[in-house]
Specification:
alpha/beta, Rossmann fold, 4-stranded antiparallel sheet, 9 helices, globular, ATP binding, AAA+_ATPase, nucleotide-binding
Length: 266
């Protein structure tokens, strides 16, 4: 497994420049710059209200941006809807996972995008694709792709949701707090899967409040402070303490927002 945090060699796949978003008089995102690279995990960290969810929803096409540019694979794009994002190869796994308990793993992975053979569902093709995706990600915690989701543990559900995102020839996979409410063993399984997702060529965004998780799997860390990017740095170039200071004050020593800018946001 590649060591996270080493010098960035992945090709940039998604680049945000000067992104702004307001809701009425409330300016939520201020000139946000962000670069995501294939084969890397970028941890997106910040306190509650820092703008993480709004930023992700802008990338996912849920919220239109007010200004700024979005480049995907080197060309400028407009993302006006979740369908646009999916067509580019951007998938989001939200905390609620959006899985249907009464359906099995295959049915969940293809929910809303079922393959058909004439008038009937192509069950064999979908089952084979589900198996191949789980195998590619080295998932061994699921006994059968025909298990009902209702019978799965929290960690297994998260695994299915991540595999579903990887199924659709996605290039960018955004994971919203994937280890929240999981036990130690299940957290270990999910973090291993996050790393494998990057190692198979995806650009992964990991939103997390857990600094141990961040420092274990991230290559880069982007810290948001009240709607501004305080820093986007290699994981190996910062300490836990510095990241916490970036999250809570927007600045750590010489790193982060200019003192005047950080003070404006307090």
């Amino acid at each position: 497994m590649a060591d996270p945090g080493t010098a960035g060699t992945g090709e940039p796949v998604l680049r945000l420049t000067g992104l702004n978003k307001s809701f009425g008089p409330v300016h939520v995102l201020h000139d946000v710059d962000l670069t995501l690279r294939l084969g890397e995990v970028t941890a997106l960290v910040g306190d509650n209200g820092a703008g993480k969810s709004t930023l992700i929803k802008c990338i996912a096409g849920i919220h239109p941006i007010d200004s700024g540019t979005i480049e995907f694979d080197g060309r400028q794009v407009q993302i006006g809807s979740p369908r646009d994002a999916a067509a580019l190869g951007i998938e989001v796994v939200y905390q609620d996972l959006a899985l249907a308990d009464n359906l099995d793993i295959v049915q969940n992975m293809f929910l809303g995008r079922e393959r058909r053979r004439g008038l009937v569902l192509d069950e064999d093709s979908m089952e084979e694709a589900a198996r191949e995706t789980l195998a590619r990600l080295s998932v061994r915690t699921v006994k059968s792709v025909r298990q009902q989701v209702a019978s799965l543990s929290g960690g297994q559900r998260q695994t299915v949701a991540i595999a579903k995102a990887a199924l659709w020839e996605s290039k960018v996979v955004i994971l919203d707090e994937p280890t929240a409410a999981l036990g130690v063993a299940q957290t270990r399984q999910v973090l291993d899967l996050v790393r494998r997702l990057a190692d198979t060529g995806h650009a992964v965004v990991l939103i997390s409040h857990n600094m141990n998780d961040v420092f274990e799997v991230a290559d880069e860390i982007t810290a948001l402070y009240l709607g501004r990017v305080a820093a986007q740095v290699r994981r190996t170039d910062v300490t836990h303490g510095q990241v916490v200071e970036l999250i809570t004050a927007g600045r750590s020593g010489d790193l982060g927002l200019a003192p005047a800018t950080a003070a404006e946001n307090i």
